[in-house]
Amino acid sequence: MDAADCIFCKIVKGEIPCAKLYEDELTLAFLDIAPVAPGHALVIPKAHHPDLFALPAELGAALLAAQQRVGRAVMAAMGATGLNVQQNNAKSAGQMVFHAHYHLIPRREGDGLALWPGTPYPDAAAVAAVAEAVRAALAK
To answer: Residue ranges of the HIT domain (predicted)?
Structure first.
């Protein structure tokens, strides 16, 4: 998907409305139209980058600052005691809009949303094998 067909780029340009929460020179935050929980917000870069791996490193600080600012406000407004920040990359990971974005999901004890616990590794050898594979990929 290129920027011309991107729903988030159209939101940035004002061609599609959104419930805007925050905006600065580089970022925009708005409510998700299909929230996991009330107050579920999205923080996006204004410039089109399809995923985390395409983001320029210097944009990371602005996105993190926006997530912190909006996340605190969402928690306060929703009476939340916690916040999940989720970011999906590629269709296989659940990415549906191919413009980098971060989900801010307000949480409360006992809210019924279950992301964890996951499945533990079967043994120490499995942990070591995965760690070694990642270290080898980092060395390339």
So the answer is: 7-114
Q: Which of 40, 48, 99, 101 is catalytic?
A: 101
- The fold adopted by the segment(s) 7-139 is HIT family, subunit A (3.30.428)
CA–CA separation, 46 vs 28, rounded Å? 6
Confidence of residue 1 (pLDDT cuts 50, 70, 90): low
What does the pLDDT read at residue 119? 81
Give the CA distances from residue 83 to residues 7, 29, 47, 53, 68, in Å, rounded to whole numbers and listed in that order.
Answer: 25, 15, 25, 23, 10
Q: Could you tell me the residue ranges of all domains in the chain? A: 7-139
In whole angstroms, what is the distance from residue 66 CA to residue 60 CA?
A: 10
pLDDT at 128 over 80: yes
Is 101 catalytic? The answer is: yes
Neighbouring C-beta atoms of residue 16, cutoff 10 Å: 11
